[in-house]
Amino acid sequence: QVQLVESGGGLVQAGGSLRLSCVASGRLGSINAMGWYRQAPGKQRELVASTSSGGSINYADSVKGRFTISRDNAKNTVYLQMNSLKPEDTAVYYCNVRGVRIFEYNYWGQGTQVTVSS
User: Fold this and answer.
1) Cα separation of 8 and 21, whole Å?
2) Is the pLDDT of residue 1 over 90?
């Protein structure tokens, strides 16, 4: 089993910043990728940013230049620094971890609400 614990969400005014954290624990084996997704009301879940074990990083076009994903492998933790937040960034943000331990796995966190007021 793998557990993901997210923190750092909240309410912020437009232009403000938040930092999300996600700690992975349990039988992790080899982690291949860690990332953040978000889901706004009435919309599908979408990728925000991801980072692979090989060091590649991907961002959604809508957050490039404003959000930064980073990873602490020693702590099995992934962060998302969100700057210049906009009301359209309002969503539930989910941590995601993919890896292999005997079999491939794909786990999601419980989600943390980010609300940006105008």
Assistant:
1) 6
2) no
Give me the mean pLDDT over the 1-27 stretch. 96
The answer for residues whose C-beta is within 8 angstroms of residue 54's C-beta and 6 or more apart is: none
Q: Which residues of 40-51 are buried (b: 16+ CB within 10 A; e: fewer)?
A: eeeeeeeebbbb
Distance of CA 32 to CAs 4, 28, 48, 50, Å? 15, 10, 17, 11
Rounded-to-integer distance, Cα 19 and Cα 68, Å? 9
Count CB atoms within 10 A of the CB of residue 73: 10
- Mean pLDDT on 57-84: 97
Residue 59 φ then ψ, to 5°: -130, 150
Run of H or E including 22: strand 18-26
CB 36 within 8 A of CB 21: no
What's the rounded mean pLDDT across residues 103-109? 94
Assess whether pLDDT exceeds 90 at residue 118: yes
What tokens were used for 66? 């404003």
